[in-house]
């Protein structure tokens, strides 16, 4: 049998599943690495069809580890795109290795590109507002500051977990004048702001952006004040499943993040709602800044179909895998 | 805990009743004016009451302590009744099974919820935690104690939940000539979000909160807090030396985001309030100038 899956590949799959490997970027790169190892270590018959079956089997195993992760299917399908045009096992093996390396490099270089493209969009002497803590957004702000474009940054505290304090600390370490504000003050300061720059947890196919709770109301306040809003996002965060109507699930977390346990125990009837993300509609977003360039949010589906080789058949296959996994769970 | 706008007016007035001579009363008056102007400069309930009191003193230089206590008590009654009346009128606009959203803490709103409960009108309430200050936690506790179904959310989750809401109802620190409302910071964002979702915004604001000064071009002063409003000193110690914050305690909601101001005289569009203000108890004092009153009191009674 040529379809035996290498131990190392299964190990990576297990680590993704157990969340030992976490974070959108690391998950995606690990999956690409696993695909590459699988191709290198293929010991089956020298028949293209067998090789392809084997690689698809590896893809399925990887995809089933985290059914809701956005970056994972993008890594896998980036690598599979064009596989159908290969003519021999060697050709196919080379294809998988090359595409996996390409994907890993692309994601590692992403911040560099994003900061390069994004900084150019910041006008000189700007005041910028950012929410939560986003490495991609910060890479733009830090680059723009070095280029002399930014004079001041407002950073929201970002309740309930105060990730804004990490942002403020990082910005201050780069010598950037930074002012922390409570989340409730964003409309009050918006008249003093030139650009809002935020990150993304996922981008839907219509260009709607899933990000830390509070982003959508900051976007609304920016729109009202005619302040431009930029989203910094690696393309592997674009969600292919939204193309056929899947909703991105919004995680609800523990009320203890909002009030102390003792407060809760005395107030059992009060319901504390703690959604982690919200969805900003595309009409409130001026640009999405990715490592492949700057796109209007409405072009999100183009990224999925052209760069990641998504087509409707692939999306259906992906959904099938997801359904099977969910039923098994 | 920070006093609500109306609690602050009432407690300021009640402190006058602790004075034991006419002279002490006058000293206390000057002290109070300074304190209000530096601590709550946009609390026009207080400013209007101080104008009324100062005007009485100037018109009746031979006043006795008994006379001024009578005036202080009258002001307390007028304000307390206006708050209750506004609350009852606001409660008329709420339907059974409505889902409401509110922020911070307000005495007039508490009385409105009380009026709803007394009439057997059942509502669910979303409360924003309302940083800085977190007065929303107090409001949530109060609503829960009074048997209303209460949801507590962070300020950032307002837009996420607004579609579940029928009406937004808020209190006010003061109302300007054009109907703009000064209230707890975050209120203008809440009103913007409600407008986007076509949810009505009601503001319970009795007429003593109307700022006559703004008719003559005065602008509101926004009080700012420091880092202590946002964190413990332990958290502050772990942040960089040059870490800085900006903490406005109030903000201003433009009249176009407000569907109605609810006063003791009824509901009005915010832009109409200036006309109504002319016909109220406060108009006689409103148009006067607190600085002038203080200047005359200093001159007439203290020869300063």
Describe the protein's topology:
The complex is a heterodimer of chains A (329) and B (304).
Chain A: H1 7-17, H2 24-40, H3 48-63, H4 71-80, H5 89-108, H6 110-120, E1 126-130, H7 135-146, E2 150-156, H8 163-173, E3 178-181, H9 186-189, E4 195-198, E5 202-203, E6 209-212, H10 215-224, E7 228-232, H11 261-266, E8 271-272, E9 277-280, E10 287-290, E11 293-295, H12 300-307, H13 312-328
Parallel strand pairs in A: 1-2, 1-4, 2-3, 4-7, 7-10
Antiparallel strand pairs in A: 5-6, 6-9, 10-11
Helix pairs in contact in A: 1-2, 2-3, 2-4, 2-5, 3-4, 4-5, 6-7
Chain B: H1 5-16, H2 22-39, H3 44-59, H4 65-92, E1 99-102, H5 107-118, E2 124-128, H6 135-145, E3 149-153, H7 158-161, E4 167-171, E5 174-175, E6 181-184, H8 187-196, E7 200-204, E8 224-225, H9 233-237, E9 244-245, E10 247-248, E11 250-253, E12 260-263, E13 266-268, H10 273-277, H11 283-286, H12 290-302
Fold and architecture overview:
The complex is a heterodimer of chains A (329) and B (304). Chain A is of the alpha/beta class. Chain A folds into two domains: 7-108, Four Helix Bundle (Hemerythrin (Met), subunit A) (Up-down Bundle), CATH 1.20.120; 111-306, Rossmann fold (3-Layer(aba) Sandwich). Chain A contains 13 helices and eleven strands. Chain A has helices at residues 7-17, 24-40, 48-63, 71-80, 89-108, 110-120, 135-146, 163-173, 186-189, 215-224, 261-266, 300-307, 312-328, and strands spanning 126-130, 150-156, 178-181, 195-198, 202-203, 209-212, 228-232, 271-272, 277-280, 287-290, 293-295. In chain A, the strands form two sheets. Chain A has a seven-stranded mixed beta sheet with strand order 3-2-1-4-7-10-11, sandwiched between helices. In chain A, helix 2 (24-40) packs antiparallel against helix 3 (48-63), helix 2 packs parallel to helix 4 and helix 3 (48-63) runs antiparallel to helix 4 (71-80). The longest helix of chain A is centred in the N-terminal third of the chain and has 20 residues, at 89-108. The mean pLDDT of chain A is 92. Chain B is of the alpha/beta class. Chain B has a domain at 5-83 and 283-302. Helices cover 45% and strands 15% of the residues of chain B. Chain B contains twelve helices and 13 strands. Chain B has helices spanning 5-16, 22-39, 44-59, 65-92, 107-118, 135-145, 158-161, 187-196, 233-237, 273-277, 283-286, 290-302, and strands at 99-102, 124-128, 149-153, 167-171, 174-175, 181-184, 200-204, 224-225, 244-245, 247-248, 250-253, 260-263, 266-268. Chain B has a seven-stranded mixed beta sheet, with helices on both faces. Chain B has a three-stranded antiparallel beta sheet with strand order 5-6-11, with helices on one face. The mean pLDDT of chain B is 96. At the A-B interface, helix 8, strand 3, helix 9, helix 10 and strand 8 of A face helix 6, strand 3, helix 7, helix 8 and strand 9 of B. Strand 3 (178-181) of chain A pairs parallel with strand 9 (244-245) of chain B.
